[in-house]
Amino acid sequence: MTMTPEQAAWFQGTFARLVDNVDQALMGKREVVALVLSAMLAEGHVLLEDAPGTGKTSLAKALAATVQGTSTRIQFTPDLLPSDVTGVTIYDQTSRRFEFHRGPIFASIVLADEINRASPKTQSALLEVMEESRVTVDGVAHEVGRPFLVIATQNPIEQAGTYKLPEAQLDRFLVKTAIGYPDLAVAERILAGSADRNPSAHLPAIITTGAVGDMADLAATVHVDPAVLRYTAQLSEATRDDKATRLGVSVRGSLAMVRIAKVFAAAQGRHFVLPDDVKTLAGPVWTHRIVLDPEAEFGGTSAEAVIARVLESVAAPQARSAA
């Protein structure tokens, strides 16, 4: 069943209320908030490559408060073990049984701070939960529930002693973005409210976690014309064929684009995806999936330049206004 125009209008209004609510804690970053919310409703995860102190923890807490969910923060360090993330089975002498003690990954919104500081084994444990939405310990599966959003962060400045995420693991993040520093006017507003150390604690809940799951299911019914699917596939193929790339956008990357484009369209009040939706999302959804040829990278080419070149060279189909 395809989303109706009436459902699209409801989705747009609800989505705008969610963004407005989170924006009270993370001022002046509506585009970032909308992108992260879109990733959550597309049931994907977000990689933030940003400097410290830009509001990543505030974003996670505000999102959790807005959807009546829970939030946790995991500080990744070289000595962090996989069980420190997922949980561990402990023998209870009273009941004479092994009991599973859940780790911090069991939350609606999980902030994985400085993910590249943990060992590859711990990174893999986190990424496995992101992909499967469950933790398996001693052969027993434990569902993490819905919604489940991991916001992983990397510090682009301090890279000493870090473990770079392999390309196959980067590909599992739906979008990559950055919050960035606020402009002067917003910074003044933030400083004026500096007495409140936790503005997210005062945010009202807009919807329940169950309603978030309903919105995700509804967004999945947005119509995507075969011409738009073909356009997405052509763009992906063009990134792989580009002379500056060693690795282009995978099939997983194309699927990720379709999923989030549906949410993006519904957030605009449409029950169908336009080629312009794909163009708008190409940067945050695909840039981190492109691996440049070393010579091209040394010559100054960037993944953003490859995306721009591909969008220029591949002709977009004529948009259709109805399903």
In words, what does this structure look like?
By secondary structure, the chain is of the alpha/beta class. The chain folds into 2 domains: 1-221, Rossmann fold (3-Layer(aba) Sandwich), CATH 3.40.50; 222-318, Helicase, Ruva Protein, domain 3 (Orthogonal Bundle), CATH 1.10.8.80. The chain has 13 helices and 11 strands. A hairpin with a 4-residue loop joins strand 3 and strand 4 (97-102). The protein is globular, with a radius of gyration of 20 Å.
Q: What's the quaternary structure here?
A: single chain
Strand content: 5-15%
Spell out the CATH superfamily of the largest domain: P-loop containing nucleotide triphosphate hydrolases
Question: Class of the largest domain, according to the CATH hierarchy?
Answer: Alpha Beta
- Tell me the count of domains: 2
- Major sheet, described briefly? 5 strands, parallel
Spatial sequence of strands, sheet with the most strands: 2-5-8-1-9
In the CATH hierarchy, the third-tier topology of the largest domain is known as Rossmann fold
Average pLDDT confidence is 89
Distance between the termini: 11 Å
Q: Count up the helices.
A: 13
Name the CATH architecture of the largest domain: 3-Layer(aba) Sandwich
The count of β-strands is 11
Order of helices and strands: HHEHEHEEEHEEEHEHHHEHHEHH
Global structural class: alpha/beta
Report the uncertain regions.
Answer: none
Please give the share of residues in helix.
40-55%
What best-fitting shape do the alpha-carbon axes yield? Answer: globular
* Rg over alpha carbons: 20 Å
